[in-house]
Specification:
alpha/beta; 5 helices
Length: 217
C-alpha cells in the first residue's frame, strides 16, 4: 500500500500524481435546516391568511369594528353652526322668572329657624316669598326626604321645575288650592339649598335642553 493511499481504502484507490478521490461531507444537516425553514415559512403564511380572513368577517378593513358603534355621528357643518348661533342666544324653553313664583316655606323638622333661613336665601335668589313657618299638621315631622313641593294641579309645571332646581331630591304633590303659589315643605333629609352656581346651571339646562346627536347608519 502506498503512503498516499487514504486509510481504510484497502488499496482500492491509489493516488498517482495530482489525482486523488474527493471526500464530501454528508448533506443530512443541510436538509434538516431547509426543512425547518420551510415549516416556519408555512406557519407564517398560515397565520397571515387567518388574520386576513378575520378582517373580512369583521367588516373588510384592517381595524376591528367596535361594539355599539355601527352608526357614525355626523359632524356639524361650519355653516350650520354659524346659523344656529343667533338662535342659541334665546332660551329654547320659556320658563317663569324666579320673581314670578310665589313660595311658602314651611319647616317639617325639629330644627328651629330652618324655614326663615331658607326663605331668606330664596329671596336673595329672586323668588317671591309669602308665608314662612312650621309645616301643617299633615306634614309636620312626617317628611323623611329633602322636601315636598306642594301646589295646585293648575300650577304651571315649569314653576315646579324652576323651584326644584334650588334643592336636590324634592318630590312634587298637588292639593285643592286655587292659587298659583307653591309650598316648599322642608323634610328631615334637608341640609341646605343647592349652591347658587349649581342651581343656575340647572336653570340654564332647563331652558336650553341639549338635543341628542343624530346618528346615521
Amino acid at each position: 500500500m502506498s503512503m498516499l493511499t487514504p486509510p481504510g481504502m484497502g488499496g482500492k484507490y491509489r493516488v498517482t500524481g495530482a489525482a486523488y478521490p474527493r471526500m464530501s461531507r454528508p448533506r443530512r444537516r443541510r436538509r434538516i435546516v431547509l426543512t425547518v425553514l420551510g415549516a416556519v415559512l408555512g406557519l407564517a403564511l398560515l397565520g397571515y391568511g387567518t388574520l386576513q380572513l378575520m378582517n373580512v368577517f369583521r367588516g373588510g378593513s384592517g381595524k376591528p369594528v367596535a361594539a355599539g358603534k355601527d352608526c357614525a355621528t355626523p359632524k356639524p357643518r361650519a355653516g350650520a353652526a354659524a346659523a344656529a348661533s343667533p338662535a342659541a342666544a334665546k332660551p329654547a324653553v320659556a320658563l317663569p322668572q324666579p320673581g314670578q313664583i310665589t313660595v311658602n316655606v314651611y319647616n317639617a323638622t325639629p330644627r328651629a329657624g330652618l324655614a326663615k333661613a331658607v326663605a331668606d336665601e330664596l329671596k336673595k335668589r329672586g323668588f317671591t316669598v309669602a308665608n314662612v313657618g312650621n309645616a301643617p299638621a299633615d306634614f309636620d315631622k312626617k317628611v323623611p326626604g329633602t322636601g315636598i313641593l306642594l301646589g295646585s294641579p293648575k300650577t304651571d309645571k315649569a314653576a315646579f321645575s324652576v323651584l326644584g332646581t334650588q334643592l336636590e331630591g324634592d318630590t312634587q304633590q298637588t292639593d285643592a288650592r286655587e292659587g298659583a303659589d307653591i309650598d316648599l315643605i322642608l323634610g328631615d333629609a334637608f341640609k341646605e339649598l343647592s349652591p347658587k352656581e349649581t342651581a343656575d346651571k340647572e336653570l340654564y339646562l332647563l331652558a336650553n335642553p341639549q338635543p341628542a346627536p343624530a346618528k346615521t347608519c
